[in-house]
Amino acid sequence: MRPARPGDAAAIARVQLVTWRTAYRSVLPVEVLDGWDEATAADTWRAAVTSPPTPGHGVLVAVEQDAVVGFAAHGPAELGAGEAPHPAGPSSEVATLLVEPRWGRRGHGSRLLAAVTDLARADGTARLQVWLPEQDVVSAGFFESAGWDRDGWVRTLDTGGTPLREVRWHTLLEEAGGGR
């Protein structure tokens, strides 16, 4: 586990593509998956690593056998329309956490989540959140096993095809075992 480097961008884009094509084939429109531009995605990830929008944004990678096998992107949480800040304090968001399926069940996802949690705690974050596709029972089970719960917020994203409904999960970091 380490912070991503600019040279990891192509590997991060590859992990995202393989994971989306494997795990989200029934969730994301075929046009999105088949029209994937890996070079553009790598450029986007390189920019996220070298020029994050705020000091609170970051990208971490999981490495096995000298290969990037997973990653997590995190940053300050954006509030929903009409949403007040959480009374416990600042919130951060896991923007994405993906582990290439062939490297799954080896603890990479748990270590990525723990690292994001540790960084958030160190920055004074009181609450972490993540948006998950409603149909993604695997990721929901992963976050639930780490002590996260749904918080009642739902959003619908325009994917260029069938709208994607997402539910928000969260954990309070000051609770015993929260985010672990």
What is the radius of gyration?
16 Å
Helix content: 25-40%
**What are the secondary-structure elements, in order, as H or E?**
EHHHEEEHEHEE
Note the gap between the termini: 16 Å
> CATH topology, what is it called?
Aminopeptidase
Strand content: 25-35%
Instruction: Give the CATH superfamily.
Output: Gcn5-related N-acetyltransferase (GNAT)
* Shape assignment: globular
Q: Largest sheet, if any?
A: 7 strands, mixed
Record field, number of beta strands: 7
Q: Which architecture does the CATH hierarchy give at level 2?
A: 3-Layer(aba) Sandwich
Q: State the secondary-structure class.
A: alpha+beta
List unreliable stretches of 5+ residues. Answer: 175-180
What is the average of the pLDDT values? 89
Q: Regarding CATH, which class?
A: Alpha Beta
Strand order of the largest sheet: 1-2-3-4-5-7-6
Domains counted in the coordinates: how many?
A: 1
The number of helical runs is: 5
Protein name: Acetyltransferase (GNAT) family protein
Domain N-acetyltransferase: 1-174
Pfam family, one: Acetyltransf_1
Organism: Geodermatophilus pulveris
